[in-house]
Fold these 2 entries.
Entry 1:
Amino acid sequence: MTQDDLVWRIAGGSGDGIDSTSRNFAKALMRAGLHVFTHRHYPSRIRGGHTYVEVRASDEPVRSRGDGYNVLLALGDSFARSTEDEAYYGNEKLKPLAENLDELREGGIVIYDEGMLDEDDVADLDLETRAEENDWHLYPTDLRGIAREHGRDVMRNTAGVGVTAALLGIDPSYFETLMGESMDGDILDANLDVLSDAYEQTQEWEFTHDLEVPDGETEGEQALLNGSQGIAYGAIDEGCRFIAGYPMTPWTEVFSIMSKHLPKVGGIAEQVEDEIAAAALALGASHTGAKAMSGSSGGGFSLMSEPLGLAEMSETPVVLLEAQRAGPSTGMPTKPEQSDLEHVLYTSQGDSTRVVFAPANAEECYEQTRRAFEVAYEYQLPAIIMYDQKLEGELRNVPVEFFDRETHPDPGTILSEDEIAEAAHHASGTFARFKRDAEKGISPRSVPGQKGGRHLTSGNETNEWGHICEDPENRKDQVDRRFSKFEHIAEDLAGDESLVTRHGPADADYGVITWGSQQGTVFEAVDRLNADGQSVAALGVSQIKPFPAPEIEAFIEGVDEVVVVEMNASGQFKGLVQKELGAYGEKLSSLLKYNGNPFEPREIVEAVENTAAGDRDAPDDATTFVPATGD
Amino acid sequence: MSTFSAIDQDREIDREEFTPGVEPQPTWCPGCGDFAVLKALKGAMADIGRSPEEVLTVTGIGCSSKLNSYFGSYGFHTIHGRPLPVARAAKLANPDLEVVAAGGDGDGYGIGANHFLHSARENHDMTYIVFNNEIFGLTKGQTSPTSPMGHTSKTQPSGNAKSPIRPLSLALTAGATYVARTAATNPRQAQEIVAEAIEHDGFAHIDFLTQCPTWNKDAKSYVPYTDVQDSDEYDFDVSDHGEANAMMRTVEDKLYEGEILTGRFYVEDGRPSYGQKKREQGEMPAEPLAQRYFEDGEWERSIDFVKKHT
Ligand SMILES: Cc1ncc(C[n+]2csc(CCOP(=O)(O)OP(=O)(O)O)c2C)c(N)n1
Ligand code: SF4
């Protein structure tokens, strides 16, 4: 745990403005020159229900939420149900304070809203004693009172920010500027008054803590982005001009961003009746030559199973997103999990020909979305991006120049009319759309409206001219051709370090493999382990299919033992590694977590330490350790 | 060379251009009503002067959905019940194409009913032809949403206890701006209606009565029929929603009483199609999306959007 990072947690009820307040807080620190990273925890309720967001800030780049936190701003849940409901719901008003104390680090700060929380209730928490034991510093403040005096109760969050700024030495002008950018008129004036009043009052207090915001200086202009934005911007730059979808958490965010921006760049966004339609629309748009995408989360993606198969059979390029959440069925809508891997790899009938990526952070979301479009439109097949509720909402700073990229206005393998005229045709004039002996398995493609390119495409097996055909020889050739694409895709992707990312010493004794969104946390854990004298390397895998067998095999071969870290109960990625490599059962153990919260670095640190010590226990109750079969 | 030069070619079109030169001879049973739809569609295209390469037919799965295997346009034979969403997007992505979606009654009124309602509601500028044979043909004769009450089949051995769906009323209620019924036994009217539907700006639904002599033996071959527009007995205004609705109910009741009424039942001109609306709202370009890839013009970059997050 680095001591020079600061993790601020704002807690309250859903609807208390936790999201916007924390976003502004993170932005202010980013503008102050710090690296920032946010972690969101929220329940599947629109109003009320305990929620929090953490903002971690450091002068060094931050890759994960870290372990615990050191400043709590407990707003009190203004949407809490009456305390009579306590038997069922608990005293939700108190939750923002009570529920968060366990993870507060030693020497931490607690700011809570005296105006909302009853003294007696607070006394029941034994806060004073715990504070003494843990060297916590308590700053009860009448946030609601300050808010009321200058504006309305809801401005309690602004008051809290003012108090935090004063306690941690943050220049309040960062917040003033941000407020000016998002509001105006009386609302702005009232908020500014609340902020400065809270800030001034607090400055007069005697501070007992020694926490401060670290000094930092990031290079170049920074932007605060989450994975959803990474995906949407990557799609736009790669020339995606059509999206269709149906809302489902957590995919909705990408859908909304695309719906807002696509029309501005000459594209079309469609909200439709269900996910079957959504994927089918994407195929229809792609069939006419547009770069198209759709997406959903678990249950909605299940509905896309049939159109996905149609894309494979008809060789219609398309990019689909799968924003995982805890399943099965509707599971836990607002909690992350990585348990849809097998679903995404194997859903839909037949032998599948799809490409699958699982980006690890906002930058990879951008890169791999571009990659997905590139591969899909080059090879005429569906490409799927798997991410999860963690990546969807976690904000981090990315240098603006990262996005200073060329766009890709390229129709992929669609021929021009001149090329169509030169291409193979049947004597009747019908275009050989599904030519069997095509180079790299990619047969020539035309789109409706092009002269000379007339053909039929189908979800049934077809002959070279697109006509339904059950001839055994044709069937075998066509399947072989479609499968042959994978060899070339694997070659194209090989060596891309954002797809298979190695971290840590080259000659490590122990290895940790992870995939998708847990990569940052694993890398941070590995850094700590090495700093503590262990010898550990990590591999973050974002290329799922084609499976990067050589890279993974080399990594496993190079270490004594490997822990595979993933957020599911059945060890799906470990299973995939064993299936693909046909070995290593005796060398791979699993560290699993499926309680709805992503891993914390300390859990991985402990699991590797245990492994090194020959001890096969899980680090804590929240995780599960499955030893290698050779144990 | 332009990207989509097959579109809007100004020349005489011969219906035979729509007969694909490659292998497939229709696999439809002798006497199947589906032949009539194929014939009407070819004739209609020639009548309105559309060339095979500017037409996209999108079909589902079923005997009827094999239509585009025997029709020489660009074609997409999709999955059961889903031709409409595929077709809608094709039209949005390239408004210059003439898009025709087709499938059976099981395809369109059963598994795909949700898409039927929403496509009609949204008033997409396209034509949707449902081959209504009151039976599942391809899967060998099961009861369909348009099978009459009491109809027995292997999956409904004691007889269908459900009343048949009312496709015309449904289309109208949902928001279609052109609703007609024609029959395989009425080739002249069929061709006229198909041509009219294609030229209509908006969602045009044709419930096309097609007999299935193989599985629906007791079904009438839809003769004698009456063309309501030619008959003195039926007088209603096709542009009046209320009159059309009342007429459709009569038509739908009578079908199962043995009286076959065909014709145009609702024609609404002037309501902007969905694409047109979207263009007016600035949410959709007028040109085909794919054109810009070929023309390689100025492309906006996401960095302008990213700058809002600094
Ligand atoms: C999802 C799915 N369910 C079932 C089927 C099997 N199936 C193929 S065609 C068909 C029904 C055909 O009836 P209809 O749509 O009325 O067309 P017809 O053959 O009568 O022209 C069915 C159930 C399928 N292909 N896909
Ligand atoms: S089974 Fe019926 S619908 Fe199918 S081809 Fe034969 S007659 Fe036509």
Entry 2:
Amino acid sequence: MNELLLRSLTPSVLGILVRRGADFAAAEDAVQDALAEAVRVWPADPSPSSSSGAHPVRDPKGWLVTVAWRRFLDATRADTARRRREDLVGEETAPGPVSAVDDTLQLYFLCAHPSLTPSSAVALTLRAVGGLTTRQIADAYLVPEATMAQRISRAKRTVSGSGVSPDRTKPRARGRFDRPGDVATVLRVLYLVFNEGYSGDVDLAAESIRLTRQLAAAIDHPEVAGLLALMLLHHARRTARTAPDGSLVPLAEQDRGRWDTVLIAEGVEILQTALARDRLGEFQAQAAIAALHADAPTAEETDWAQIVEWYDELVRLTDSPVVRLNRAVAVGQADGPGAGLAALAVLDESLPRHDAVAAYLHERDGELTTAARLYAEAARKAPNLAERDHLTRQAARLNTRRSSR
Amino acid sequence: MAKYLLLKHYRGAPTPVNDVPMDRWTPEEIAAHMQYMNDFAARLERTGEFVDSQALAPGGTFVQYGGEGRPPVTDGPFAETKDLIAGWMVIDVDSYERAVELAGELSAAPGAGGKPIHEWLELRPFLTAPPTITE
């Protein structure tokens, strides 16, 4: 049984059911049933070279649509609103072949529905578009399966409320969902998945790249390309980012020979095509910064002046204090630690990682006592273990150096 | 989403408003308290925010490495020490504000006289796995 094949077919099968008029929650249940059935009855080796000579299921997607639609009809007939829905179903003519792309696209936007919380949107996207099982999503987020099942079914109910109208006279192709999310929300959801970065049974970073690739193939939008480029450029540095013992390796100290040059080249190319369209957005700007890092043969040769310019663009686009904090680091590299500290001075000290940035700039400025104190303070506030250990080591390095003098 | 630990203490926390030891409660009051806790956990399961919860026995033992070739050193039970954890609940919520809100609700479990005990709960964020982007 090819799990990847099933996962890749899930969104289009679900999309077809929804387009045929199935309520989202019911359609999703029916597709899950069909997937379970496929796992049970499909041959283990679907390749044409297997002993049987050909895949008995010649059209896996068609097979799944048929089974899922049958399941949906069974469930619908058992429903209390049976008669009305049977009428609806009876009127439905079997649709001819259609592009699966539009259906899948609709699912992306549905899963980014504005009434969903970010965590619900993420869970629903992984389930409906990614085709992951509830258990896989629960494992990835380290919560019990029952909890994740509830999170997903609540999300399904939320978006189902805005589902198909039984009134067949109304046009249904557009406006079926009262307020599907916009592209920006879809991208944010995908970026959330990417940043989770948990690598267990399901590698969420790889999964989000797969989904973003799929989205980029379906929709022509510079920011979708920007996000895909950003993910690829970050992902290219993944193996160099941690030492074998799991500790963090800062960008400047990473072994650049371990960066994935194929991914970098692909990311840069996608980014350049997007930038050429002159519709800049925050993901393209972030990807441009990542590309400048990826482009530098050594940390010293990084083009910090250009990175500061991109941060200026990002500040203009987002006005985010976190972006200003990152900009202060870049300014410190481009114009010296004094300039970096000046850029930092106007920012709120309660910003996440403010102390870590201040510690770094003070160290480069030669104020080791202040730097050590700030590193220790930053370690206390670190949001994860790897970062805390890294900052604690930085503080310890300065403290032991001073005491050994 | 972020995970938080809600810690209940036998002692060590500030004195709750409705400070009557549980063994002075009526059986009905104890049942009501337990029901509240169970309902709370069940509700969080339905909202997709529940991760885990456990009650701990009051006894505990400090254990220490005893040196090469020697058995571990124990010092306890330490039921008399000032800080003692009674149990925990782990939640997975969208924001710190939501975690505080839920901790407040849990602290409102009924105690003696059916009134909320207002017990102090310790709210501790989990350290997470590093995100994909750290530089």
